[in-house]
Amino acid sequence: EQETVTGLFSKDCILPCPFPPGDDEVIYWKKGDKNVHSYYYQKDQLERQDPDYRHRTHLFHENIPGGNASLKLSNLTLTDEGPYSCYVGTQQTKTEVEVTLHVRVSSYYALEYQKTDTERMLKCYAFLTYPAPRISWVRGNMSILETDRKEARDGVLYSLRSDQNFINTADPYYCHIHLPYEDWAAEWKMQDQLSNVEGSSTAIPCEYSSNTTTSEGFSVVWTLNRNAVISVLASFNGTSHSYQPRVQINQSDFSLVLRDLTPNDSGEYLCNISTPHYTKLTVRTLQV
Questions:
Q1: CATH topology of domain 106-186
Q2: Which keywords describe this protein according to UniProt (predicted)?
Q3: List of residues 6+ apart from 100 with CB closer than 8 A
Q4: 191-288: which CATH architecture?
Q5: What does the pLDDT look like over 105-145, one tens digit per residue?
Q6: pLDDT in tens, 222-239
Q7: Any idea which architecture 2-104 has in CATH?
């Protein structure tokens, strides 16, 4: 029998091995020529267990008589990936099961926008990836180089930050993160300035594509950047939340509705629309 199992890095997983119940079970789990776990005479026999698996394997003893020789493997590492074989012999039958284990890393990504009096900066982050990610930048439709980079290691995992300082706001900017198991992309875009009079209301639109709103992990966050101070105004992730008076998100198009405008409402409004594989930042300046 052939089975494939995907486990998460540093978590536990179960490698299945069913067999026809019988008497005097002998169980051998192996990975290539490594002894992963052995069981006979009604108990674990771990004297010859490979040191890589010490204290990380577990058979469900109470389920063995019912025909279950599945192996629980704890604290998964990237070297655990690959083919495993389970052999079960009883007085009645012999069973062999092949299980291929894939170990996935729960990486995550973000694009952050910062503005000071003199410059604007985009920071593209990849957290806890393996191997090290490849990060590339595009302005409009031209490839550009990053202006700075920071890297950190956590055991075998990489975290990376790539910066882009810029002055020109006419073009959109794109950050792409490439890994063997997934790609992630983010886009930053400046929209036309809005002007409103004091005491009026306005709705600041947010650009998004309709197919993203149905995907799992979809979220919207509105922030205001005023005099280099950033405040979170409202968010939506299935339900909407407002964190300031006079603001709310319109759930039909995710625009930000502002009531009773004052000159203090002037500033850069940033809409961050995210799904697990894509982030879009749209910036609009409001002048009251």
A1: Immunoglobulin-like (2.60.40)
A2: Cell membrane, Disulfide bond, Glycoprotein, Immunoglobulin domain, Membrane, Receptor, Signal, Transmembrane, Transmembrane helix
A3: 2, 3, 4, 5, 82, 83, 84
A4: Sandwich (2.60)
A5: 889 999 999 988 888 999 999 999 988 999 999 999 999 99
A6: 999 988 889 999 999 989
A7: Sandwich (2.60)
